[in-house]
Design goal:
about 30% strand, about 250 residues, TIM Barrel
């Protein structure tokens, strides 16, 4: 059985790591390069960086951040935020990123997934999906959760897989920052519907939430932010809890 992965997520705005609740009310969580180095040395399996700043220099900012992080870490890291072309991906991978994450650009131009996976390999392409329940149906959202689409989460996830994505990062907007647990029912359906790995995101509040998302949600990896940034959960302690629950992890 493949080991389950623990992935700290660094949402970066104006060069700082931030964290909010339900995608709102952001607060400072520290320097992203320092946090990356800390996590790499203290049990994280991978890292995810999402540039949530809508600045004209986003590409330059991301490249510089990737270069600085690559010097400090020896674990895979994924970079996302404003990526919309082969050129964008080429710059980030050459700067040291191992994978890229696309979201809004994939919805606006689904063929981008095909192009990127053909050019760089599906293992490099993560499609992030932000969704929330509206009248009982999971609706996909754009632009950091600000714009609702009519896309259904499960239909879009299947299309993403068919177009060549290597992995899906699913964030439940309803659960994000609430610390009430992951959206395990939706995660379980995604895992049953798809062959590619599913990363669970949104809702981690304690170690048992991670146990539940791996067992009940059938997730391949679990991503969290504030519980790690603010030292509420130690990753090595978390992994011991997972191992005690017969969940395979790398220690």
């Amino acid at each position: 059985m493949l080991t389950k992965r623990i992935i700290p997520c660094l949402d970066v705005k104006n060069g700082r790591t931030v964290k909010g609740v339900n995608f709102l009310d952001l607060r400072d969580a520290g320097d992203p390069v320092e946090l990356a180095e800390f996590y790499a040395k203290n049990g994280a399996d991978e890292l995810v960086f999402l540039d949530i700043s809508a600045t004209e220099e986003r590409r330059k900012t991301l490249k510089n951040l990737v270069l600085r992080v690559a010097e400090k870490v020896n674990i895979p890291f994924t970079v996302g935020g404003g990526i919309s072309s082969i050129e964008d991906v080429d710059i980030l991978l050459k700067s040291g990123a191992d994978k890229v994450s696309i979201n809004s650009s994939a919805i606006k131009n689904p063929n981008l997934i095909n192009l990127l996976s053909a050019k760089f390999g599906s293992q490099c392409i993560v499609v992030a999906i932000d969704a929330k329940q509206i009248k009982g149906k999971w609706k996909v959202h754009l632009v950091g959760g600000k714009i609702k689409t009519e896309l259904n989460l499960f239909d879009w996830a299947k299309e993403v897989e068919q177009r060549g994505a290597g992995e899906i990062l699913f964030t439940s907007m309803d659960n994000d920052g609430t610390k009430k647990g992951f959206a395990n029912k939706a995660l379980s359906k995604l895992s049953e519907d798809l062959q590619i790995p599913i990363i669970a995101s949104g809702g981690a509040g304690n170690t048992l939430h991670f146990v539940d998302t791996f067992i009940k949600g059938k997730a391949d990896a679990a991503l969290a932010a504030s519980v790690f940034h603010f030292k509420e959960i130690n990753i090595m302690d978390l992994k011991q809890v997972l191992r005690n629950n017969k969940i395979p992890v790398r220690i």
